[in-house]
Amino acid sequence: MSNNTNITTTNTDASALSVFTDSNSFELAQRAGKMLAASDLVPPQFKQIPNAVLALNIAQRMGADVFAVMQSLYIVHGRPAWSSQFLIAMVNASGRYSPMQFKMSGQGDSKACIAFAKHRETGDIVEGPEVSIAMAKAEGWYGKNGSKWQTLPDLMLRYRAAGFFARLYCPDLCLGIRTMEEENEIGNKASSREVPSFTPTKQTDMAVEMINGTETVVIEAEETSENAPEPDTRADALADVRGLV
User: Fold this and answer.
1) What are 41-71's pLDDT values in tens digits?
2) What number of other Cβ atoms are within 10 A of residue 212's Cβ?
3) Which pTM does this prediction carry?
4) CA torsion, ordered 178, 182, 187, 189, to nearest 10 deg
5) Taking CA atoms, which of 50, 165, 210, 230 is between 20 and 30 Å from 242?
6) In angstroms, how far is CA 223 from the centroid of its own chain?
7) What 3-state class would DSSP assign to 124?
């Protein structure tokens, strides 16, 4: 009897991890997603049923309320991103640490922030990576158009430090997803790709077009005398014979 109870509990826990566990969970998620997508209270990005189903899946994996997830999850450059406040709330509500706090130090470019909290089981003070204005400038966050680093530096330092802390010590709570501010500043950096070097072969007699970002590079094929066909002596002789005839 106890064995049956354990099996049932295990199956229930596994089903709670994902809406894609079995057909019943998936069908129920689609029905719930359809209802959520029709609500006027959800953000526009979740007006599509597939997005609403994915939000349901994320909420179940995190053990969070689906409405809170929808209100705090943004789509930035085609990628999901959390609001910093939501990550702070998730860490505080997890029960693993005391409420997250922030330690500020320095002035000017040396102004820095460290997010820290007390581990409830061990009693140790856990600190996240230090974030500074100098780091923001070195990483290119500070000078971006529309960036809040210049107008709200203290707030941005706290948000960035909180995001680092959450992903470092509570990766299961944020699922490795960056904050909205991070995705705006980090996630949209296009990887620099060099145009591959191309040397037209001797047989190439047409231009080759390659795309490099938004520019089109046209490489002209080289014409060499080596590619010119050799004269056919037999054809010349035949032409002479026809002329005589």
Assistant:
1) 989 889 999 889 988 888 888 888 888 889 8
2) 11
3) 0.60
4) -160
5) 230
6) 46
7) coil
Phi, psi of 102 (to 5 degrees): -130, 135
Determine the Cα–Cα distance for residues 222 and 24; give it in Å rounded to an integer: 64
Q: What are the pLDDT digits (tens) for 167-197? A: 889 888 888 788 887 777 765 554 333 434 4
**Inter-CA distances, 67 with 13, 150, 179, Å:** 21, 33, 18
**Chain-centre distance of CA 73, in angstroms?**
13
User: What interhelical angle do 2-17 and 49-62 show, nearest 10?
Assistant: 130
**Closest C-alpha among 111, 45, 106, 105 to residue 72:** 45
| Entry field: residues in the chain | 245
What is the residue-wise DSSP string for 30-63? HHHHHHHHT-TTS-GGGSSHHHHHHHHHHHHHHT
Instruction: Tell the residue number behind the tokens 């080596």, with chain if given.
Output: 226
* Residue 58: closest CA among 172, 140, 166: 172
Report the amino acid identity of residue 63.
Answer: G
Instruction: Tell me the two tokens of residue 175.
Output: 């699922």
Mean pLDDT, the chain, as a whole number? 74
Is residue 217 within 8 A of residue 195, CB to CB? The reply is yes
Give me 55's structure tokens: 């939000």
Using the CB atoms, write b or e for 14-37: b if 16+ within 10 Å: eeeebbebeeebeeebbebbeebb
Q: What is the CA radius of gyration of the chain?
A: 31
Which residues lie closer than 8 Å to 30 by C-beta, 6 or more apart?
49, 53
Nearest residue to 133 via CA among 143, 125, 123, 124: 143
